[in-house]
Design brief:
492 residues, Serine Threonine Protein Phosphatase 5, Tetratricopeptide repeat, 2 domains, two-stranded antiparallel sheet, globular, membrane
C-alpha cells in the first residue's frame, strides 16, 4: 500500500486549522498514541500535579501489564516466544497466529499491529510520567520517592522497547511528550507526530541508559515481585547485553553476578513455581501479580488450557520428544498436561486421545501470576557467559545445579561447543512456555538451523523455510499508512 505523503498530511492539518481560525484556541489532537504532550496545556501528562497524581501515573504504567496491554502480556508474549519457536504450534483457529507460526507473516497481520500498539501505549504512559513528575512540587512527594517513581517508569519503558527492538528491529524512539499542536508549530512538530525509525543500536543505547538510571534509585528487592527492583533491572541489563551484537560476555557475567548477589534462591521443588501457592517466591525476580477479575485478571490461562475449545500455543511434538529423550519427567509434568479431545476438534499434528496443553499457567480463576524473570534464567545466562569466555567448567557447574533440582544427572562437559548446545537445551527445558525460546534462538544465531530441522510426531520435516528476513516482523501496514517516515523491513 502507498504511504501517505508528508506534505499532504501537513497541508490537510493546516487547512483544518485555517477553517477553524475563528476560534483562536483551536488545537489538534495528535493522531498517534506514540507520543503525547510535554509542554503547554492539555497534554496527556498535565494531570500530574501532586503526590497523588504522580502515584496514579505510576500505577497506570504498571496497569498496562494487567489491563491496557494485557492481551500482549497474557497471550501474545507466549505466542511470540513459544509458538513462533519449536516449542509449540499456534493452535486455535486464528489466521494471524498461523502466519506467525509458519513464517508467512504479512505486514497486515493483526497481531503484529496490535502488539506494536500495545507496547507503544505503555511507553506513552511512561513518557508522560517521566516528563511531568520532575516538575511536581508537593511536600508529600519526597525527592527520593520522586526519583524512584521515575526509575520504575524508566524500567517499564526499557522493557517495552526491548521487546519492540527484538520483534521489529529498528523502531521509532519516542522519549518525550508532545506539545499541544497549533497552526504555528505543526511543521516543527511533524517529526514528533510521525517519527522515523531509529537504528537498533540507538534503541539499545536508550534501553541501557534507562536501566542504568533506574538501577540507582529503585529498591533492592521487595516482597511483592510485581514492582521494579534492582534485581529486575540487572536481569534486564543482562538480557540486553546477551542480545545486542557484538555480545560483551564479560558484561553479561557482571550483571548476572549482581542479580545473584541480591540473595535470590532456587525453589527446592520446581512445580512450586507454577502451583499458585508459592507466588512472589525467593526465585522470582519480576512477576506480574493478578488477584482476580476485579483488578485486571489473568484471562490467559483459559487461552492455553481447557477442552471447551481448541487453545492457543499447543505444545509441539518436538518439545514433548525433547523432555522424553532427556528423561526430564519433573519439568515435563509441570510444563505440559494432556487430555482426550476426541470429538471436540481435529488436528493434523497432535494426537487427539492425548492432546498436549501448556500447563505453567493452570489457575482458571484469573489469579494466576506470570513470572517474567526468575533466578534459573539468570543462572543459565551466567553459564552462557562463562562458557563463551572459556570457563567451560564453571558453566558445567551451573547447568548441573539447575539439573539437580529436577533430579537429572550432572553433566561432565569439557568442550565449549558441546556446552553451548547443552545450555541451549537446558534453557529450553527449564524455561519452556515462559516466552524466551524464540528470542534465545535468534540472539544465538540458531533460529534458522533449529527451525528448519523441526519434525512432526513421526519424524517428518514440517518444512519451515526461514531466511534472515524471517527473524524480524514487518512494520504494521497500518502504521506505514499513517506515517510517511516509516520504512518497511526488507522482504515485506
Amino acid at each position: 500500500m502507498k504511504k501517505t505523503n508528508r506534505l499532504f498530511i501537513i497541508s490537510a492539518a493546516l487547512a483544518t486549522l485555517t477553517l477553524g481560525a475563528c476560534n483562536k484556541d483551536l488545537n489538534l489532537t495528535p493522531p498517534s498514541n506514540t507520543t503525547v504532550g510535554n509542554q503547554g496545556q492539555g497534554t496527556a501528562g498535565s494531570y500530574i500535579k501532586d503526590a497523588t497524581t504522580a502515584e496514579a501515573a505510576l500505577a497506570s504504567c504498571y496497569g498496562y501489564f494487567r489491563n491496557g496491554s494485557s492481551e500482549y502480556y497474557v497471550l501474545d508474549y507466549f505466542n511470540i516466544g513459544d509458538a513462533q519457536s519449536d516449542n509449540a504450534y499456534a493452535g486455535a483457529d486464528n489466521a494471524a497466529g498461523f502466519e506467525i507460526d509458519e513464517f508467512r507473516l504479512l505486514s497486515t497481520n493483526a497481531w503484529a499491529s496490535r502488539d506494536w500498539g500495545y507496547l507503544y501505549n505503555q511507553i506513552t504512559a511512561c513518557n508522560s510520567l517521566i516528563a511531568n513528575v520532575p516538575n511536581v512540587n508537593d511536600p508529600a512527594l519526597s525527592s527520593g520517592r520522586k526519583a524512584q517513581i521515575i526509575g520504575e517508569a524508566q524500567f517499564i519503558r526499557a522493557r517495552a522497547y526491548f521487546d519492540l527492538v527484538r520483534i521489529f528491529g529498528d523502531v521509532p524512539l519516542v522519549l518525550t511528550e508532545l506539545p499541544t499542536i497549533t497552526a504555528d508549530n505543526l511543521e516543527q512538530i511533524y517529526p514528533l507526530l510521525y517519527p522515523a525509525r531509529k537504528s537498533a543500536d540507538s534503541v539499545y543505547a536508550q534501553i541501557n541508559a534507562d536501566l542504568k538510571a533506574a538501577a540507582e534509585v529503585v529498591p533492592t528487592s521487595g516482597v511483592n515481585k510485581g514492582y521494579v527492583s534492582k534485581g529486575a533491572v540487572y536481569t534486564l541489563l543482562a538480557k540486553v547485553a546477551a542480545t545486542k551484537k557484538p555480545v560483551n560476555w564479560a558484561e553479561v557475567e557482571s550483571y548476572t553476578n549482581q542479580v545473584i548477589a541480591l540473595g535470590y534462591s532456587l525453589l527446592p521443588v520446581y512445580d512450586n513455581l507454577w502451583d499458585g501457592a508459592h507466588e512472589n517466591s525467593a526465585e522470582s525476580i519480576f512477576e506480574l501479580n493478578f488477584d482476580g477479575w476485579d483488578t485486571g485478571g489473568n484471562w490467559g490461562t483459559s487461552m492455553f488450557l481447557g477442552t471447551d475449545w481448541k487453545k492457543f500455543c499447543n505444545p509441539s511434538n518436538d518439545l514433548v520428544r525433547a523432555y522424553q529423550q532427556e528423561k526430564d519427567t519433573v519439568r515435563f509434568r509441570s510444563t505440559i498436561t494432556f487430555a482426550n479431545v476426541n470429538g471436540k476438534w481435529g488436528d493434523a499434528r497432535l494426537p487427539l486421545d492425548s492432546f498436549p496443553f501448556f500447563y505453567k499457567m493452570r489457575k482458571t480463576d484469573a489469579s494466576q501470576n506470570i513470572i517474567m524473570y526468575r533466578l534459573a534464567d539468570v543462572l543459565l545466562l551466567k553459564a552462557e557467559a562463562l562458557n563463551e569466555q572459556g570457563d567451560v567448567g564453571g558453566a558445567n557447574a551451573i547447568v548441573t545445579q539447575i539439573r539437580e533440582r529436577v533430579k537429572l544427572k550432572q553433566l561432565n562437559i569439557t568442550d565449549q561447543a558441546a556446552m553451548r548446545l547443552a545450555i541451549e537445551k537446558e534453557r529450553r527445558l527449564e524455561l519452556a512456555f515462559e516466552g524466551t525460546r524464540w528470542q534465545d534462538l535468534v540472539r544465538t544465531d540458531r533460529a534458522i538451523p533449529v527451525m528448519q530441522a523441526v519434525t512432526d510426531g513421526k519424524g517428518v520435516s514440517l518444512g519451515y523455510h526461514l531466511t534472515e528476513k524471517s527473524l524480524l516482523w514487518p512494520v504494521p501496514q497500518s502504521e506505514m499508512d499513517q506515517n510517511a517516515n516509516l520504512i518497511q523491513n526488507p522482504g515485506y
